[in-house]
Amino acid sequence: MNAPHAAAPHRPRVGLLLTGGGARAAYQVGVLQAIAEWLPPGAPTPFAVISGSSAGAINAALLASHAGAFAAGVDALSRLWGRLACSDVFRTDWRAALVSGLLWTGSLAAGGLGRLTPRSLLDSRPLRALLGRHIDFAAVRTAIEDGMLHAFSLSAAGYNSGQSITFFMGHAGLRPWQRTRRIGMPRPLTLDHLMASCAIPFVFPAVRIGYDWYGDGSMRQIAPLSAPLHLGADRLLVIGVREETPDEPDRPILRLEYPSPGQIAGYILDTLFMDALSADIERARRINRTLALIPPERRAQLALRPIEIATVFPSRDVRLIAAHHEAHFPRSVRYLLHSLGATRGRGRPLISYLLFEGGFCGELIALGYRDAQDARERLCTLLGLAHPAATLRP
User: Fold this and answer.
1) Secondary structure, 3-state, 234-272
2) Percent of the chain residues topping a pLDDT of 90
3) What is the value of pTM for the model shown?
4) Which of 269, 372, 270 is nearest to 16 (CA)?
């Protein structure tokens, strides 16, 4: 009699989390380029779960729509970011800049202008048209049905509900979840959901979906790692967009200027996009260390499980890179940002979120590629790939 077949070992389900950061999300493309080189030609995505928020949701959606051919998806991302200009993301003509400036000035002076009260600093209709040409949500659904993708999600924040909402499509066995100020909802995803996830507060307009207005997915997102884990990921690759070395304290100066609106806005965006992610990664690793101290038989009784996490963050300060490309802003946008104090001193971090221009994005892509190659051993271990030799491009 033939011996019974041994049960197939559980293959870890790898998740990919792409965070927000405006134009800084170009960095993620370089990391993905390196990973694509390590896979066999024509290979499907190595990520069973793909999650994104804000600009990271754009990258996540395009990757998910090419789940059957990962390299093709990365190539599509590379072409998109490599040719990008500010005018592809928001209106940059002088009329739009002047009208926005006048409306905001008048609204602040008059306490609102009724129906003319501005909804955002910039008009993001060009971005909607661009994404409509590149993102195919029907292809995402097909990838899930064909088993190439277990789940795809993006996050947005409900202004009326005060909740962080993760909208997801995935395997039929996946269920919604609810935690404090954050819920997961299965939905057929559309361009509206993606635009809502990218709607940086004050900068881009909120998007109405159903009975609520939604804004940037990084708001209220106190546990960014939770979405891919709820959707079944056992391992997780997180690609951030901020160099994690803390700033050096400023030297004492004789005259300390009051922070400009641009400096305050940049500080808010840094907090919005980066701080919760860093804290959640630290918390997850602390839980992993605690679980390692618990005997396996006791660990099985807990609602917690160890999660292997690999991270890739920029090895250089993205703000300094942006400062070298500041002149590439259209003059109208540069004028608008200058009026906010965003083009000088401590106000400059804001431009790194809005500089959707090929030179800046191209340098970030190259940096992401080099950083991924430097981390190839631990990334390949996470993905279950053989460790390739370094293949740094010139």
Assistant:
1) CEEEEECCCCCCCCCCCCCCCCCCCCCHHHHHHHHHHHH
2) 51
3) 0.86
4) 372
